[in-house]
Amino acid sequence: LVHNPSQRSNDPCLNDIDNDGIDNFLDNCPNNSLIAKTDFRTFQQVDLDPVEASQADPIWVIKNGGAEITQTENSDPGLFFGNDVFGGVDFEGTFYIEDTRDDDYAGVVFSYQSNARFYMMQWKKRYQRYWLSSPFVAEGEPAITLKRVDSKTGPGDALRNALWHTGSIPDQTELLWTDPRNVGWEDNVAYRWQLIHRPQIGLIRLRVLKGATLVADSGNIFDNEIKGGRLGAFVFSQEDVIWSNLGYRCNDEVPQNVYDDLTADLQKKVDIDHSWNWW
């Protein structure tokens, strides 16, 4: 933060608190000099089934100055994530699948800490049993889900099947929420996701919209296991996926309607975000 011993009204910290050369109102993280805007051009990728060779590994293409990601292959499960690290965060974007033949998984990743520990949102088009039944049978439902991945094995066949399976798998994944409508994504339809994570109170909230129509709302979900990390995208056997108009910002406050749903003890730990413009 900018050194401001006088605290006078014309001091520089009023316009640029973290002294990164970006005015506060243009800065996605005005208190963090390492993050100023959404940019995934510097990234890493993780192949979650590095042994199985029946499918290709994902191929990620970055466009629009780091605000758009495309994955082109019918691939093994894989992750893409940027280098910026967050605690409390808002993460949004448009999710679009051009492929008209396949019906598998795509989603987003948040609080990524390692290839065995992260949160994810995933969505499948149709029900399907995974074609490899070892080390256990995995059944994927079309519903939008939120999961915590905390794998004791890391990448390999057990994590692969656990990611395909909608329910929880001991020592691999924990299902935090599933959309009760159990409806899959449609090809060539733009969906907007809006995700907030507030690790200081364990809050996760997801909304998905189709145009102005609300498709799904997780409500306030609480999980205190992972306290922050990186953001990115996820695919499993689904090609031609586009994540566009990506946006993230550091934020420990919550929208009014999210605040209203908190218990009194949690309300004491957070402030209301009055600048909210997309929730």
TrEMBL record:
The cross-references to Gene3D superfamilies, in alphabetical order and at most eight, read:
2.60.120.200
Write out the GO cellular component annotations: extracellular region
In alphabetical order, the GO MF annotations are:
calcium ion binding
Q: Which SUPFAM superfamilies match?
A: Concanavalin A-like lectins/glucanases (SSF49899)
Gene Ontology BP terms: cell adhesion
List the InterPro entries: ConA-like_dom_sf (IPR013320), Thrombospondin_3-like_rpt (IPR003367), Thrombospondin_C (IPR008859)
- The organism's superkingdom is given as Eukaryota
Enumerate the UniProt keywords alphabetically: EGF-like domain
Q: TSP C-terminal domain: which residues?
A: 41-255
Do you know which PANTHER family this protein is assigned to?
THROMBOSPONDIN, THROMBOSPONDIN, ISOFORM A
Put simply, this protein is called: TSP C-terminal domain-containing protein
- Source species of the chain: Meganyctiphanes norvegica (Northern krill)
